Amino acid sequence: MSCIGKNIKKIRTVKNLSQAAFAQLFDLARPSVGAYEEGRSEPKIDTLVQIARHFGVSLDLLITKELTVNDLYGFDIFKRDLHPDHLLIKVADATEAPVYRTALVMAVEQTAYFTHRQEKQFIDGLPSLILPGEAQVLHRAFEHTGSEMQYQQHGLRHGDILYCSAVAVDASQLKPNEVYVVLTQNKLVTRRFQGLTESSALLLKADNPDYDHLSLPVAEVTELWHVEGVYSTYLKSPSSLEERLTRLESLVRKLTGE
Fold first, then answer.
1. What's the pTM value of the predicted model, to 2 decimals?
2. How far apart are CA 64 and CA 62, in angstroms?
């Protein structure tokens, strides 16, 4: 059972919800809830966002760790103002680890993002990912759509979440073969940067060879984001060919003494 399945079951138990009642909250089929809890499947990212919002937990906690009752109710006995008659005493204030929030642009919000991307109120109203550490540059997350970056069951799948860092709209700062999310006034594309064309436009390549290269004039680009990581609910088992290649590579390393 994954953390997600365990957490859904924990939430149901703490909130005293049946599988049917939980399913009704998020327009799910009751058997789907059972499948999530048993680890036979996992919810789509938009469903996870709805669950996190509804029960007031952060999305990263929901998918990365087993929730506790404290997480669900948001209290900490070491931070409470206790009555003098209580046997427990306040020992210390817990030191909170540094975290930062990253706005998450879901597919349904992309059209609005083109128009309102510079409005603080709009950005603050988007769902957010909460990650540990301190951000050195601006980050943003985007829900990936389409099959342009998927080939032979590998690569970025429809519905994956791309975690990105901001890049200046300057072609000299881009790294060849790295994946970028590129925005214009009315378009959002995810491609590998290949270099510049003769007319100094960005040459962008899809991992899927069925899609042609894109050429975007730098002047049309409004935002550039470097893809640093991806969250996917799809876990593919290695094919027999991949397993044979892995064994062959291991054998070669042993023979060469690496």
1. 0.56
2. 6
